[in-house]
Structure formats: structure tokens, C-alpha cells
Amino acid sequence: MEVVIKPTQDEACRLGARLIARIIRTRPAPVLGLATGSSPLPLYRELVRMHREEGLSFRHVTTFNLDEYVGLDPSHPGSFRSVMEEHLFRHIDLPRERAHLPDGMTTDVPGHCAEYERLIAAAGGIDLQLLGIGADGHLAFNEPGSSFRSRTRIKTLWTETRRANAAPFGGDPDKVPRHCLTMGLGTIMEARQCLLLGFGRSKAQAVRDMIEGPVTASCPASILQFHEHVIALIDEDAASLLQHRDYYREVYENKPSWQRWE
Ligand code: GLP
């Protein structure tokens, strides 16, 4: 895992956006895995800026979001479809028919989840999967205990996660849906590259467990230690509990020039 520590979330997200822009510019049919949550918002802002000011086009891009709430109308401001529209999709030239999210209103959950997996495979797999991390180490909505081999499926959200995601529901965790559809850890592990964003003190323990802890389903993000191409882009606060942070800094500062991606 490549660990990149930046002073602030904004700086980290600007760097992350450059990596994504490079993939968009160099692949004929780029496939991006997208995430919601507050962590990627400055990254989306930077992509929108690049689209407006630097001609970055999403015309040939296909996207797959990690997750969506069950039973929530896509027009609800808390749905991940709405969040993506507001922060990214409506500002760029991404063809909507290629912007995929799981359909939380489906009446056939197993069939729809299998179809989501099939669509990802038919698009050629995900080139880069953007990820946030929950304070309990969850990836997408794969809460602690999720199987490392899991695929897109329904999951039950526990109170802490509903509390953390309550803002668009008037701050009331009871209004946050109890179920969601989420890509599985097995799905995420098949992406050719993962870009994980983690910011703030509240993520420091989860970031430490993910990077330096044992690989365990108790910290779902720790499975990324088995992925061959992960960049963890974190700020100083999120890095504060890392035992080897000086090492990560030195490695990053001394990368051979041909290997630099920023
Ligand atoms: C939710 C999302 C995750 C996200 C996490 C952290 O649970 N399903 O994909 O990583 O929240 O969110 P934030 O970036 O707001 O801290």
C-alpha cells in the first residue's frame, strides 16, 4: 500500500483528482468506482473545476457507485444518487446512462445485485475505485464482520453508521434507512486500483488498523493489505496514530521520477 500524507484534506483531494484525471485522459473507456460521504467532496469539486477550466471530459467514462440506501426514493436529498448529482454528475458531461448506482427501490434485491456485478464485469471491470473509510473501518457499507469474499448485496446498517450519515436526514439517525445495497469486499478487491481517502482525527484509529493492523474482518478496510495497487491518501490528523509515518513520508518523497503519478 502506498501511503501519502498531505497536510490537509483539500491538498490530498487535489492530488487524488489529478490521478483520476490521468486515468480519464489515458484510457479509451475508463471505468471509475465512485464513493459518497464527505471525504471525496473536495475531490469531486476539483474534477468539476478541471472539466470547466481544463477541458477534462467524461464523455467516455463509465461509473459505478459503491452503495445506495434501500427503500429511499432516488430524488430524496439523502439518496446517494442525489448526492452524486449535486456534487458531480450535473456539473460534468458524463452520459447518465453510464452513471450506475445500485437501485435501492428494486423489488428483486438478489437479482438486481447480481445484475450490478454483471454490469461491472461487462464494462471491463473497474480501473480505479475511490473509497472512504468509516470510523469503524468499514468500506462502502461493509461493516465489521463482512465477508472478505462478499459481492454486491443487502446489508443492515448499525446505529453508529446511521448516526454518521444522518446529516441529509435532518440529523436524525432514525430517519436514515436501516438497509442498503453495497458492493462487497470481493467486488472492491477486483478493482485494478484503489484510492482510499481518510481525513481527520476521527479516522486515525481506523486508518492505523487498516494499514498497520492485522488483516481481519473486524476492520474490513484491512483487506486492502492484500490488494496489489492501493494508494491511501490521508491528512496529518488521520495519520497521527501510524507507527511508521516517517517511513511512508520518506518513501513518498524519494520515489523514482518515472514512478511518480502526481
Ligand atoms: C458511509 C459510506 C462510506 C464512507 C463512509 C465515511 O458509510 N457508505 O462509503 O466511506 O460513510 O464517510 P465520510 O467520508 O463522510 O467520513
UniProtKB/TrEMBL annotation:
Keyword Hydrolase on entry: yes
Site positions (Part of the allosteric site): S146, R153, K155, T156
Catalytic activity line of the entry: alpha-D-glucosamine 6-phosphate + H2O = beta-D-fructose 6-phosphate + NH4(+)
EC number: 3.5.99.6
GO biological process, one term: N-acetylneuraminate catabolic process
Catalytic residues, chain numbering: D67, D136, H138, E143
Keywords from the named record: Allosteric enzyme, Carbohydrate metabolism, Hydrolase
MF terms in GO: glucosamine-6-phosphate deaminase activity; identical protein binding
Domain Glucosamine/galactosamine-6-phosphate isomerase: 11-226
Pathway linked to the protein: Amino-sugar metabolism; N-acetylneuraminate degradation; D-fructose 6-phosphate from N-acetylneuraminate: step 5/5
Repeat listed as a keyword: no
HAMAP family, alphabetized: GlcN6P_deamin
Record-given protein name: Glucosamine-6-phosphate deaminase
Organism of origin: Candidatus Ozemobacter sibiricus
